[in-house]
């Protein structure tokens, strides 16, 4: 099934489940994904798409922008070009360029930078808390749908490696968010009050992260 928006054709992938409602999203390949009920007809789906063209267009443009940014290398909120040169012995950052001997050397340097930065900011934000909480274990991995996870049982905070792309205030917010879960396990009013206590502008940072 195809759907046209501004003279561009997009694939429509329909997933029929036991949903009461119909949900539309855009995947990484710019396919229009429709999750709907078993009894919803293709005609009804097409009508839903036609009635929501503006919203779908916005989602497509957002995904296009995200894909464009993913092709660039961002390090702590700044876009860099990476230059490999066999004559370079160590990684050098100069203006908007990062120079390294090769990709292997660069990857090793980048992983160390990430670990050092994440550990340092976990410690700094932990020390802000006057509430009694255990110092958590730290894990780092790339996640598609979450910036951080707090495992209450193992006292482990997992941080998304993609946070390295953004300004450090984003990392600090996510750490504070996850540390707050060591006191409040849900997203209650008390939880958000605690987050606000240590990250007063969390709403602005959270909104910026939701755009990515």
Describe this structure in words.
The protein is of the alpha/beta class and 212 residues long. Helix content is 40%, strand content 28%. The chain contains 6 helices and 10 strands. The protein has helices at 42-51, 53-70, 103-126, 168-180, 189-198, 202-210; strands at 2-5, 8-26, 32-37, 73-75, 78-84, 92-94, 97-100, 137-141, 148-151, 156-160. A 4-stranded mixed sheet has the order 4-5-7-6. Strands 1-2-3 form a 3-stranded mixed sheet. Helix 3 (103-126) packs across helix 4 and helix 4 crosses helix 5 (189-198). The longest helix has 24 residues, at 103-126. The chain is flat, with a radius of gyration of 21 Å. The two termini are 28 Å apart.
Summary tags:
alpha/beta; single chain; three-stranded mixed beta sheet; about 210 residues; 10 strands; 6 helices; about 40% helix; four-stranded mixed beta sheet
Helix content: 25-40%
Biggest beta sheet summary:
4 strands, mixed
User: Uncertain regions: pLDDT < 50 for 5+ in a row?
Assistant: none
Count of individual beta strands: 10
General form: flat
What is the C-alpha radius of gyration, as a whole number of Å?
A: 21 Å
Can you list the strand order of the major beta sheet?
Answer: 4-5-7-6
- Helix/sheet category: alpha/beta
Terminus-to-terminus distance = 28 Å
Number of helices: 6
- What amount of the residues lies in strands? 25-35%
- Give the overall pLDDT as a whole number: 92
How would you spell out the order of helices and strands? Answer: EEEHHEEEEHEEEHHH
Summarize the structure.
The protein has 212 residues and is of the alpha/beta class.
């Amino acid at each position: 099934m195809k759907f046209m928006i501004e003279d561009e054709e997009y694939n429509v992938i329909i997933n029929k489940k036991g949903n009461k409602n119909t949900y539309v999203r855009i995947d990484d390949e710019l396919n229009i994904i429709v999750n709907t009920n078993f009894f919803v007809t293709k005609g009804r789906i097409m009508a839903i798409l036609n009635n929501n063209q503006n919203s779908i267009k916005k989602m497509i443009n957002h995904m296009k922008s995200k894909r464009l940014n993913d092709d660039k290398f961002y390090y702590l909120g700044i876009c860099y070009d990476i230059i490999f040169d066999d004559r370079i012995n160590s990684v050098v950052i100069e203006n908007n360029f990062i120079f390294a001997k090769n990709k292997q050397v660069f990857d090793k340097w980048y992983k160390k930078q990430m670990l050092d930065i994440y550990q340092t900011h976990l410690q700094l934000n932990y020390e802000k808390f006057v509430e009694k909480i255990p110092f958590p274990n730290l894990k780092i991995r790339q996640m598609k749908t979450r910036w951080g996870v707090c495992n209450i049982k193992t006292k482990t905070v997992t941080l998304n490696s993609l946070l390295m792309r953004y300004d450090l205030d984003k990392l600090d917010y996510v750490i504070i968010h996850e540390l707050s879960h060591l006191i409040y396990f849900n997203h209650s009013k008390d939880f958000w009050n605690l987050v606000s206590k240590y990250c007063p502008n969390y709403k602005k940072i959270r909104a910026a992260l939701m755009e990515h």
